[in-house]
What does this fold into?
Amino acid sequence: MVNKVRIFLIFAVLGVISLSSYQYFSKFSTPIGQVNLKPLESGVDIEIENFKLVNEDASSKTWELTADRAQVLRDEKRTELKNVELKLRQEGGQDFRISADNGVMQNEGQDIQLEGHVRLVGQPRVLLDHIETPAAKPAG
It folds into this structure.
C-alpha cells in the first residue's frame, strides 16, 4: 500500500513539473518575434512577415521601408514585397510616404519598383526635384 502511494506521488510530482515547464516555455518568444516554419514557394529562399528595412545617417533615419510580407529570391537577386510603404525624410521636415500593393526590390542596388494602387502622400515637389530628366535622344 505504501509503495502504491509513493508511486502515485512520484507521478503527480512529475505531472506538475511537466505542466509547469510546458506553460513556461509556451510563452517563450525570440527577440525577433514568433518564428513559424512552413514550406516555401518554389524559388523563395526566405519569407519574412512584418518586414522592415531602415536606412540611417549619423543623426537620423533617412528612409524606412515596411511590408506585410517579403520573399527573398537569392538566385534572382531580388525581394518581392506585399503591401509596401516607403517613408522618406527630407531636410527641412518635408517628409512623404509612398505606398503600393506590391513591390520588387533589387537586392544589390536596392532599386524598388512599385505596382498596384501606388500612392504618394506628402510634398510631391520634394520628389519631383530629385527626379532626373532623361537625356535628349538624337534625332534620326
Remarks:
- DSSP finds two helices and six strands in the chain.
- Strands lie at 46-56, 61-73, 78-89, 95-106, 112-115, 119-122.
- The longest helix spans residues 2-26.
- The CA atoms of residues 123 and 130 lie 12 Å apart.
